[in-house]
Amino acid sequence: KVDYDVCSNYGNWLYSAGVGNDPRDNRKFNVIKQGLDYDGNGDYIRLWVPELQGIKGADIHSPWALSSAALSKAGVTLGETYPRPVVTAPEWSRHISQRPGGSPHPRGRRGPAQALAQHQDRGIDFYFSRKKDV
């Protein structure tokens, strides 16, 4: 049995590509966040991208952010054994933490305390205004 709905699938692919219908301004699909949310340990990437198998844990989602020593230990040379990123979206940086080793949060999420503290000073106007650089 194949689970396939033409309208839903095409709509999701368009949305993921950033050309779908979304009423919110400047909406982008964040591949780093999705990878951390749904493949926190990077097992899926390790299965299909053998060049990165030496990278442990969630670091596999952003190998370009690793130190030269960590890349060398994993047997990865950016630009040779694995390509450098073509683009790096600014919104990815918030999912690559400054923890020792550069590892993102294991599940790609902040704990409830940090999330609450981060948003407690934002009123409803923040969420419905056009200016989002606050």
UniProtKB/TrEMBL annotation:
Protein's name in the database: CRYD protein
Coiled coil: none
GO molecular function, one term: FAD binding
Source species, domain of life: Eukaryota
Keyword Flavoprotein set for record: yes
Gene3D superfamilies reported for this sequence: DNA Cyclobutane Dipyrimidine Photolyase, subunit A, domain 3
Cofactor or coenzyme needed: FAD
Family: Belongs to the DNA photolyase class-1 family.
Alphabetically ordered keywords of this record: FAD, Flavoprotein
Database matches in Pfam families: FAD_binding_7 (PF03441)
Positions with a binding annotation for FAD: D3, Y4, D5
PANTHER family linked to this entry: CRYPTOCHROME (PTHR11455), CRYPTOCHROME DASH (PTHR11455:SF22)
Domain (Cryptochrome/DNA photolyase FAD-binding) ranges: 2-96
Cofactor note: Binds 1 FAD per subunit.
Transmembrane segments: none
Organism per entry: Cephalopterus ornatus
GO biological process: photoreactive repair
Region of interest (Disordered), residue spans: 89-119
